[in-house]
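User: Small ask, check this?
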Amino acid sequence: MQLTKLIYQAGIIGCGGAGFPTHAKYNGTIETIIINGAECEPLLQTDRYLMRNKAGELIKAADMLLRETGAGGCVIALKASYTREIAALEEAIRSLGSDVRLHRLESFFPAGDEQTIVYEVTGKVVPPAGIPLNVGCVVNNVATLYGIYEAMEGRPFTQKYLTVTGEVKHPVIAKVPIGTPVGECLKLAGGPLLSDYVVVNGGPMMGKLMSKEEAESACVTKTMSGLIVLSTDSSIARRSEVTLKHMLNRAKSACIQCSFCSQLCPRALLGHPLEPHRIMRKLSSCRDLTEILDDRDVQNAALCCECGICEVYACPMGLQPRKVNSLLKGELARAGIRYQRTEGEWEPDPNRNMRKAPTARVASRAGVAAFEEIQIDELKEITPESSGTVRLALRQSIGAPSQPVIKDGERVEKGQLIAVCPEGSLGSALHASISGVAALEEQYLVIRP
């Protein structure tokens, strides 16, 4: 079966980011396949667990990608400090006679940013507003690669591996059916240590913060990579409490134009024309964001990857350039203003290597250093057979939501196709993660065992 068709039918999307449908990445001429094993967000260890315990499966899937795409090479990029993971992968490469090679990265954030990792591995800069395929590369993270292996074995994408850590009794790697309530995942880790808490969906730098109440109603999605329980008094929780009006007023009045946000911006260090301090300066002269959308510096906000280095690590005034950029990206989209790419070669900042943000220091600035050294080896599992009710969002990826192909009240079996990508649209298929009776509830398919 053609590779892209296999991936498409299994419903595989990027497991750790925005959820770009994986089959669409392989439409083009590919020189290098990069498997992202950097897992650069502090605290997250899901990909590390898979590299240690599923190394053979990962290398088999990588070999298949090489054969099917005709790419010139496949590289697994991971941090040099991941010694156990490196040992497991090297043994799998030797035993399988694979041509896959490893690339050892420094421990910095965001080493796993798609455009950053392309430069680290190949020395090529993805053009501003471009994609890795513009320089002959495709990037998938380790969990996505494992999903491809499962598809090779005839199993669609129905289960997720997650890091559950922070203020919990026993941090674990959880393996659960997609659609499992977040609360059930926290129970696998012994439950929260606090009576009142917040939960970060993802990593502490780029993850989405959920209140206790929001977490209790949330369910696992294909893109969820981790759950971090934190105090309501944590620095991450306090930053989220700043109102939009207050954030903008502070940006206008307190920015000292030190330019640290621009000097340390990972995209600016790749040579992209993104200078957050200039954007902050423009805010001081306007009453409303829409007044400055015609400014070229402001339009460069579209290049922001929202990694958070500018506000968590760089800014001495505690301002939030990332959130400003995020707001501007939304306003630019509503105004129909798209970033205008220019032709030419892009060169990284000559000081880039000296300005990389060490992961341990980033964890400290983010207020999660106490959990960074926890080594998680234990896997806890909720099997499809033992699961309770699951709620599967119809929109699991970038693009159009999936369209149900089953009837309300219909009995479905684990692995059965229950929703498809609309014809001619970017999206993904959705499969039942457990067996039971399905019901359509707004933008969810609910399956009760």
Remarks:
- The CA atoms of residues 201 and 207 lie 5 Å apart.
